Amino acid sequence: MNGRHRSSRGLVLINALLVVAALSAVAVLLLQTAQTSRIRQFYMQERAQTEAYLDGFELLMRRVLDQDRRENSVDHLREPWAQKNYQVEIDRGQVIGTTRDLQGLFNLNWLAGGDGLAGAEEFLQLVQARGVPEKTGQEILDWISEGGPTSKALYLARNPALAPPGGALVMLDELRQVKGMTSSYFSRLEPVLTTIPAEGSLNINTTPRDVLQAVMPGVSAAVIGAIVAQRKTKAFETDEDLAIYLQGVLTTEEQAKFGTGFFGVSSQWFQSNFTATLGQSRAQRSVIFRRAPKTGKTQVKFRFMRKK
User: Which domains does the chain have, with CATH numbers?
Assistant: First the structure.
């Protein structure tokens, strides 16, 4: 009898210990879940704050561009908006960005319209100058041709399938889909290409040397170098100043080809690429701005997240 009582008490004690152990495990799990939830909430808040800092930097660059237009009507690479690695320190991090003048670059939409400032021959010269095969350049021309590429079956066979419509481009990143394009080729072409509307002139104050050489075929490298050196010393401030300078360095035939309307000294289209870092969070954004020629007010035309 006593043995059975002791056995029953033992079973009760074991059951009690099992219940305590189970409750302890549940308590630990609840604590871990709560801690995980707090950590997740912290990072979500941090991410939201990072995005807010990107919004703030975007607004800052709009004001910089607005202020620039209020002060003068010329755009060049020594102005505040053109400062490389424009940096703003924030609590536990920073926002850093760079703005470039899109009207100083080779516009692919000149080719799509067929009546732009430069044509296919100049484009292919630029492509090869940037270390990209001419064949890849030809594929780009095919991509933006009217009606789209001739090798549509190749793009339709991809997963997911692509059906390039051809014609003017909206975003430069579309070139990543072109046959033969690699990340390396794209990174070489990106600094000299743009896809803004095919309007306006090419800003000679901000155009890279490679682009100048490509759009001015037949002009010697020495003359191109002289133009670059001149603008470093003093930017061309008016179309008249530019015309007088070009008369002194170009032949009569070259002056007729690259005269009024081809080059300008001011810009409407800009692109800012910036990164915000806050604690463990990091976000990148690209914004394309257009500054209205009449009011001088800067507006956001496109906004997209950058690839990390």
Answer: 105-264 (1.10.40.60)
